[in-house]
């Protein structure tokens, strides 16, 4: 597919939209990850970043979190490009929470306590981060 531009529409620097850039390096995406308490380390390869996320989350459903946040940030980017809706981290986070809630009926019952603990920690993180 030939596009008029392969640069990030969300960034002033107009960086090329590689997979790594879209999902880990774009400032919008990094802020979306940060809304879950996850920092994207600089100068780390994508697989190392995902391993770092896995370690930091320390939950058996880490991959679901990664996929849903990647999806949520991508839909925020697409809303900007195709619908002229300003990308907001809060909107991305709301989309993530909505999608995460839809996943509940597919999750192993044994994960429920860990999911509730993780969600509580995210809520606490958000409360603390909004106070600053």
- Reading the helices and strands in chain order gives HHHHHH
SS class:
mainly alpha
Give the uncertain stretches in residue-range form. Answer: none
Which shape, going by the Cα principal axes? globular
In angstroms, what separates the terminal alpha carbons? 45 Å
The figure for the number of domains is 1
Largest sheet composition: none
Q: What is the number of strand segments?
A: 0
Percentage of residues assigned to helices: 55-70%
- Overall mean pLDDT stands at 85
Number of helices: 6
Estimated radius of gyration: 16 Å
Strand content: under 5%
Organism: Arundo donax (Giant reed)
Protein name: Reverse transcriptase zinc-binding domain-containing protein
Short description:
It comes from Arundo donax (Giant reed). With 132 residues, the protein is mainly α.
Walk me through what this model shows:
With about 130 residues, the chain is mainly α. The protein has one domain (about 20-130). About 65% of the residues lie in helices and about 0% in strands. It is built from 6 helices and no strands. The chain has helices at about 20-25, 25-35, 45-55, 60-85, 90-105, 110-130. Helix 2 (about 25-35) packs across helix 4 (about 60-85) and helix 2 packs across helix 5 (about 90-105). The longest helix has 22 residues, at about 60-85. The chain is globular. About 20% of the residues are buried.
């Amino acid at each position: 597919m030939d596009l008029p531009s392969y640069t990030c529409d969300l960034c002033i620097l107009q960086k090329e939209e590689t997979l790594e850039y879209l999902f880990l390096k774009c400032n919008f995406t990094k802020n979306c990850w940060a809304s879950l308490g996850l920092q994207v380390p600089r100068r780390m390869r994508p697989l190392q970043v995902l391993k770092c996320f896995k370690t930091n989350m320390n939950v058996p459903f880490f991959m679901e979190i990664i996929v849903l946040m990647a999806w949520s940030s991508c839909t925020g980017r697409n809303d900007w490009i195709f619908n002229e809706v300003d990308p907001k981290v809060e909107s991305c986070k709301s989309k993530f929470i909505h999608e995460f809630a839809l996943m509940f009926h597919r999750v192993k019952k044994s994960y429920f306590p860990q999911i509730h603990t993780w969600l509580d920690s995210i809520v606490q993180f958000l409360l603390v981060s909004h106070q600053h």
